[in-house]
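Margin note: ligand = cytidine-5'-diphosphate.
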Amino acid sequence: MLIAVDGPLASGKGTIAKHLANWYHLPYLDTGLLYRACALGVLQSGEDPSDEVAAAKSAKAVDRAALDHFQLRSARIGAAASKVAAIPAVRNALMDYQRRFAEQDGGAVLDGRDIGTVICPKADVKLWIYAPAEVRATRRHKELLERGEDISKDEVLAQLRERDSRDAGRPYAPMLRAVDAHLLNTGDLSIDAAFEVARRIIDAAQAEHS
Ligand code: CDP
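Resulting structure:
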């Protein structure tokens, strides 16, 4: 079974996708890490994340080992990731890795922004996870404080709005809800409750296909 989980920053997509992968015993890929690893590579070589040549070169060097770096989850890398992610050559360089992961025997769970639309348009089940911007900013702020980052809630909210609009507004593979995606608003839900809703959607979709 191939499950595509998409949605904006801090919508809960990563947590839900990880829980689903455990529940259904499927391998899981957080595709955001690929863009974050690409961004980290660009910054480490002293280049600008919007520089197409530098970003494409860094994307080609991303491998599994690059996805484990602690710094990847920082706010700075998140912002730079959304810049490299707008560059078509970067997205193309990272596409094979994602498709190969998705096509393994038995299926997989992938989360990102364009999984249901571009990477796995034929996924068995697609979820679009969302929540109000204020709620997402509160969640991300808490995560960043726990990581030891010194950042205000207002800054997080401003970065979130900027990233949402860049991700949704880029012409190539924008963040977009697939027309056949199931919607899940996590705004008022605990992690467990959101996972339960997602699991019921997937079980119902599986029952329908069998
Ligand atoms: O966890 P969070 O939602 O903050 O972000 P992420 O999933 O780690 O993704 C970081 C950035 O990578 C996003 O803002 C997007 O610009 C980009 N991204 C993308 O364009 N396509 C994906 N499939 C995954 C991430």
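Strands lie at 2-6, 28-30, 108-112, 125-130, 182-185.
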